[in-house]
Amino acid sequence: MSIPIVSIVGKSDSGKTTLLEKLIPELTKRGYRVATVKHDVHGFDIDHEGKDSWRHKKAGAHTTIISSPQKMAIIKDVDHDHSLEEIRDAYVKNADIILTEGYKGNLFPKIEVFRSALKRELLCKKEDNLLALAADTKIDAGVPFFDINDAKSIADLIENKFLKQSKKTTL
User: Fold this and answer.
1) Segment 125-167, tens digit of pLDDT
2) Which domains are seen in the chain, by residue range?
3) What does the H/E/C string look like for the chain?
4) What is the reported pTM?
5) Which pLDDT value is given to residue 171?
6) Nearest-angstrom CA–CA distance, 45 and 131
7) 23-48 burial code (b ≥16 CB/10 A, e <16)
8) How far is CA 123 from CA 90, 134, 167, in A?
């Protein structure tokens, strides 16, 4: 069975990262192993000029791996923006759920984060596989509504919809 994926989506500065920072410890204290994927359409660089790994890539290495007793990072040239399925299947092992930040255009269930002060429209509709709305003001989007700060209830939804079911099938 594939690891379930739930995307946390929303406009810039809506609070996606803050919600994830609350959801991750809530789910891990319940005994779940959480993996995350952050989508950055603008590109990113974790390798910095002058560092050995940067020098390896600059010299022409297709893949560079930085490894320590505590963590590992892979820096790899890619020829396309990988789908969540490709990322999950190639890199995520031993996790109970993958929470993503971004990926608003994917087909996986989404929880949209909305802040009224930003005066923007919702990104998703129920038809976009919108699972729930986390906002600072009550909005009827045809899906469950949660206060933006209520990570416990949002974790309950994720647990009941995706994690308890997968535990039952592995028993």
Assistant:
1) 999 999 999 999 999 999 999 999 999 999 999 999 999 865 5
2) 5-41+81-170 (3.40.50.300), 46-79 (no CATH)
3) CCCCEEEEECCCCCCHHHHHHHHHHHHHHCCCCEEEEECCCCCCCCCCCCCHHHHHHHCCCCEEEEECCCCEEEEECCCCCCCHHHHHHHHCCCCCEEEEECCCCCCCCEEEEECHHHCCCCCCCHHHCEEEEEECCCCCCCCCEEECCCHHHHHHHHHHHHHHHHHHHHC
4) 0.87
5) 44
6) 32
7) bbebbeeeebebbebebeeeeeeebe
8) 29, 12, 32
pLDDT in tens, 8-64: 999 999 999 999 999 999 999 999 999 999 887 655 667 778 888 888 888 888 888
Give the number of other Cβ atoms within 10 Å of residue 142's Cβ. Answer: 11
Q: Report residue 135: phi and psi, to 5°.
A: -145, 170
The whole-number pLDDT of residue 68 equals: 87
Residue 144 structure tokens: 């469950």
